[in-house]
Amino acid sequence: KNEVEQSPQNLTAQEGEFITINCSYSVGISALHWLQQHPGGGIVSLFMLSSGKKKHGRLIATINIQEKHSSLHITASHPRDSAVYICAALNRDDKIIFGKGTRLHILP
Amino acid sequence: GAGVSQSPRYKVTKRGQDVALRCDPISGHVSLYWYRQALGQGPEFLTYFNYEAQQDKSGLPNDRFSAERPEGSISTLTIQRTEQRDSAMYRCASSLAPAGLAVEQYFGPGTRLTVT
After folding, report:
1. What residue ranges in A17-82 does DSSP mark as E strands?
2. Nearest beta carbon to residue B104 from set A33, A45, A100
3. Is B35 part of the contact surface with chain A (CB cutoff 8 Å)?
């Protein structure tokens, strides 16, 4: 069992839909990252969370430390949001543990 | 077997000096990635290689940064004329499968660079 699990693995939705991607982890963490990996391979850091909730534009990330769970939400999704979204937990040894990613495809 | 290793683990250098950071990927891993993580920030992608070919260097901040992987194994990230803003943890990762997929990446311990 991976220490960081994401669901769903793949998600296809229509433009405008509200998207939720989930991340569960089993290790103690100091922070959790949500990353976006574009088709070309480049990775962009979206959020780093250690508690609560963060919002940037149409993206919202939440984390529940007690439940060891984080969610990434996209409001009013757009085809340009199509990418792989990766959850990465930074454990207390400063090691980044990546989830396997959620491949999101937004249809126009 | 051995994981990804990086050297040096810590590097303190004076502004204006060049530094070379080394990454030894897991043997047989096709792809090698470089990331940078500033203190309190999320990681950012710098560049990656499939075998010896540099696939994407769009994340390199400017032309002072370069990377090579001449024989498809060990990689060197070079920063010329270092500046204080270059201070960060530089992480290397490798993966068995070619990049472009959400494949599992194995990270090295990082090199913490401090430019004074």
Report:
1. 19-25, 29-37, 43-49, 52-56, 59-64, 69-74
2. A100
3. yes
What is the 8-class DSSP label of residue B101? Answer: S
Closest residue in A to B60 (Cα–Cα): A42
Of B42, B100, B107, the CB nearest to A45: B42
Q: Is residue B30's pLDDT more than 80?
A: yes
The answer to whether A49 faces chain B, any CB pair under 8 Å, is no
pLDDT at A41 over 70: no
Mean pLDDT of B88-109: 72
Cα separation, B46 vs B37, whole angstroms: 10
Q: What is the pLDDT of residues B38-97, one digit of tens each?
A: 775 556 778 888 899 998 777 799 999 999 999 999 999 999 999 999 999 898 988 877
In this complex, which of A33, A42, A100 lies closest to B42 when CB atoms are compared?
A33
Please state the rounded mean pLDDT for residues B18-31. Answer: 94
State mean pLDDT over A23-39.
Answer: 84
CB B71 within 8 A of CB B25: no
- Kindly provide the b/e burial profile for residues A42-55, where b requires at least 16 CB atoms within 10 angstroms of the residue's own CB: bbebbbbbeeeeee
d(CA B90, CA A79): 32
